[in-house]
Amino acid sequence: MNYNEVVKISDAYLLPFVSELYGLAGYNIKPVKSHKRGRNVVYTCEKEGTGAKILRIAFLNDRSREDFLGELEYVRYLFEHGGSVSNVISSRKGNLLEEITHNHHTFFVCLFEKAKGKMLVDNHYRYREGVPISEYYYNCGKVLGTMHQLSKGYAPVHSRYSFFDKYNAEYIDKLIPGSLPLLKEKLLGLLKSLEGLDTDHESFGMIHFDYNDGNYSIDFDTGQITVYDFDNSCFGWYMFDLASIWGNGMGWIQSEPDAGKRKRFMEDYFETVLEGYRSETRMDPSMLNKLPLLIQVNLMEGIIDAFEVMRNNGEEPECDEELSYYIKCLEDDIPYFGFFHEIYSCEEPFEYEIRNI
Description:
Elements: H1 3-22, E1 28-31, E2 40-47, E3 50-58, H2 65-80, E4 88-89, E5 98-102, E6 105-113, H3 134-151, H4 163-166, H5 169-175, H6 181-195, E7 204-207, E8 216-218, E9 225-227, E10 234-237, H7 238-249, H8 259-278, H9 285-288, H10 291-312, H11 321-331
Helix pairs in contact: 3-7, 3-8, 6-10, 7-8, 7-10, 10-11
């Protein structure tokens, strides 16, 4: 079942049922444009005089009821304990998650408060008028630090999966085409390196696992960031989310031709992020030394996600310029997304000759 088929089923059958379940009569319900990594059908629900909502209908069979409940209970926990997240809204039955079966296919449905403000991309990557961009960098770290601090006290009822439950040798061998043996070898080597990392209370816990400016909104009056899209959340290293923020910073300087200037910018940027992060939670200094490793793990996650999307869409595996670039970085052990390496071109950022597979 693909995205377009689900939209048709939603319009004809699911939305009237969902509207009754959540009391959405009178709301204007409109689909949100999907993106290539999307795994859900998403709608905005708006009604004059009341806060907007986000409706999510999941249709792929790659997640269980337990997975969804683990995500939604974590979001509710964060919200109730002061995390800056979009709260999940219970149905009229009092459930965080509703299941609807149609033609022997189960759809998992949930509803969220819509975050205040808007995404950076919708503001043309302009920050608040008259306010230094460093405030945004600091707040990115601060909001993440709050979530990680709360995670250190989180005891789930329905538990999300742990990193190695998904990212393991068997899964990589099954997902990655056999025509990419060096990539498989490098991915397995990364997993081996991760096995030696601490998984203690201060280093390892529930993380967002997709913390980027496409998954939070900014109130441009106050600078407050509100996070959403926790459907990749899992138990992992807190440093993984920080490595994600490091990667987000590249966009601000990617057109700079001088690698030295890019490097200096990234050092200053990330120091400001860490300032915000440390204002909310403690970080083991030894884990900071693992940043290059966790940046490579972010790279690994992006590659695996690309092959998952192709598989879920029933497409034959293929590499575009971006995926070819990431694979080259992993195969040749090029650190930091190749951002300071000769492989990087500011004219064609993060692109490499297409790999035939």
